Amino acid sequence: MLVVDEAHTYDGAKGSEVSMLLERFKASIGVEEKGKIRCIATSASLGDALVDDKVLAFAGEFFGETFSQVIRGQRLNAKDRLSNPYTLPAALTNEEILQYLSIIELPQQGSPISSWFDPLSAIVPEQQLKIAESQADNHIHKFLWFALKGHPLIHRLINILCREPKPWEEIVRSPEVWGVNLPIKLDGSVDDTDAEVALAHLLQIGTLARANPDDLPLLPVRLHLLFRSLEGLYACINPKCSGAAHDPLYSEREARYGQLYLNEKKTCECCNSPVLELGSCSQCGQSYVFTQRQDSGELESLPRSIQGLKDNTKIYTLTSGNLDSVTEEEEMGEDEEEQESTIIKSFKFEFQKHGWIGKVSDETFTNKVTAQNELTLAWHRQKK
Length: 384
Fold this sequence. Notes:
By secondary structure, this protein is α+β, with helices and mostly antiparallel strands. The chain has 3 domains: about 1-65, no CATH class; about 80-210, no CATH class; about 235-380, no CATH class. About 30% of the residues lie in helices and about 15% in strands. The chain is built from 15 helices and 11 strands. The strands form 2 sheets. Strands 3, 4, 5, 6, 7, 8, 9, 10 and 11 form a 9-stranded antiparallel sheet that branches. Strands 1-2 form a two-stranded parallel ribbon. A hairpin with a 6-residue loop joins strand 5 (about 275-280) and strand 6. The protein is flat and about 85 Å long. The model has no long low-confidence stretch (mean pLDDT about 85).
């Protein structure tokens, strides 16, 4: 048998390459005649039954074999999988369950079943906990399974997730899950702070609950955590920026830069000084700020492509003072002439009616106090 998982990902060039690899594999074991190997392609992203002919054709081309059947799984709702939910006593309201789940403290792994009684008693009826204990054979995962598999909240969550994937925020704010509407803030937005923590705790308990160690958990969820890389790191170049004092990194960067930003800005929100992109040397870690200056003095954002950065004479490499790092080569004591690979000049920022502009100067940089509406940084020019 030859099984390929996530078969839908093998399209285009990647699919062609793997298909040829499978041909080489069959040749290497001396099985080149069709029908000698049972080939199976698995995927959770097949679409509906209307595309079965295309699925069979794709699998046939991919494996170089003949396919005759698409076997589809069927999603089960909570009742079909777990039978009917039990009824909660009137004292266990949906509001109280949500509130308690947001503050519940779960026992440490390996704790005895008795340590779970108190945390769960606010969301599960006491009689149900006793029944679960009698069925658990002293196994925590079984105890949690029997205690929670009939809980109405678990059933509501499973029924929502068995229809289709849902964004985390949508589940957090769903009245169908919690049985109540979440509170509204003064600005009109939904206050989902408690619900987000409550859902995280519920999933944590639900994935521990299993009828048997090798079974799927009570909540067999799969979370896809998607994130974007940072757009960049940007700094106000004014060392006296009023926002820097509130920055937790200020003590380490004192008298260097002002407020830091994680997205691109032209001017600082705190002091209206120029904001430039930060970077660092891959050898020694020395930090720099960069700007792109047009002939008119106008400051522009850096290009986002490597090619746009290479050999670009309009990009300036700046620091707020003298370099505080040296490379290993410099520490080894090269000739003074070779060490002096960078000429430090001045780059001035002046505020005009249309905003900040940059001026280059052959004047040697010094850490001097500049005039109002003027800032100066050290401009590092490579000899070569």
